[in-house]
Amino acid sequence: MQLNNTTVLGTGVLGSQILFQTAYHGLPVIGFDISEEALEAAKTRLDSLVAVYGEFFGEPTKAQAARDSIKLTTDMALAVNNADLVIEAVPEDLKIKEQTYQKLASLAPEHTIFATNSSTLLPSDISPFTGRPEQFLALHYANHIWKNNTGEVMGTANTSKEAYEAVVDFAERTGLVAIRVLKEQPGYVLNSLLVPFLESASHLLVNEVADAPTIDTTWKIGTGAPFGPFEIYDIVGLNTAYHIASHGGETSKKFAELLKSEYIDQGKLGVATGEGFYKYD
């Protein structure tokens, strides 16, 4: 079973990167989102990735060809009518995912495999909505896919071996290092390490132990890491940080409130919008 025709549901920061990564490695791909406004934002993101991929891989012509090959639509039926694989990258909200998969299940061909890129929800949380639990699993990408090129593959007790291996093969054919997650684990491998680290930083901020630049500087000097936790929050996107924090404990919820009132409501979502905890060109 080889997966070629690919659809990405959701064209946000990571969805756009998934589209570009797939196209750059030569597979036909189409992106779906719910509005023309969302697709216009996606076009801007995709255009900006031409220079990123061209510089990183040293092949600007190939990067432009990849951008030119990507199709976008607000018509889900059109987006999935020939899909071998649908990668879902919609917001981290179980209700939104339920509605998305219920519609998707009625439109996609019987052979199509569904993969969620959810960072916080287990595949088994979503599986009942898919209508095809044996053909459903998770494929989790890291932000800045072109260099942080892990693809964490995690199934459920119902995922077929054939579907799992097909997604591992797809990950490898699209330039990823396939990480076989052997059992369901909230956060997979990467976020099981990353989220507690970021949460600790947010608690230091909310409890007024230190401000964000001080926390970042302390971490970078003390460990030699290239980014501090709040720089990572900006890269990941403050909307994603908000959704994760809002499902945490009391201190995490306070951090979520701070993110919403001081940043998200002001349109400051991180690197993608030019400002979050820091300002960016």
TrEMBL record:
Domain (3-hydroxyacyl-CoA dehydrogenase NAD binding): residue spans on this chain: 6-184
Annotated site (Important for catalytic activity): H140
Record carries keyword Cytoplasm: no
Protein name: 3-hydroxyacyl-CoA dehydrogenase
Gene3D superfamilies xrefs: N-(1-d-carboxylethyl)-l-norvaline Dehydrogenase, domain 2, NAD(P)-binding Rossmann-like Domain
Domain 3-hydroxyacyl-CoA dehydrogenase C-terminal: 187-280
NCBIfam families, per database record: PRK08293.1
Biological processes, Gene Ontology terms: fatty acid beta-oxidation
Record flagged with keyword Lipid metabolism: yes
Enzyme superclass (EC): oxidoreductase
Organism expressing this protein natively: Glutamicibacter ectropisis
Keywords carried by this UniProt record: Fatty acid metabolism, Lipid metabolism, NAD, Oxidoreductase
EC number: 1.1.1.35
Reactions mediated catalytically: a (3S)-3-hydroxyacyl-CoA + NAD(+) = a 3-oxoacyl-CoA + NADH + H(+)
Protein's pathway: Lipid metabolism; butanoate metabolism; Lipid metabolism; fatty acid beta-oxidation
Domain of life: Bacteria
GO molecular function (one): NAD+ binding
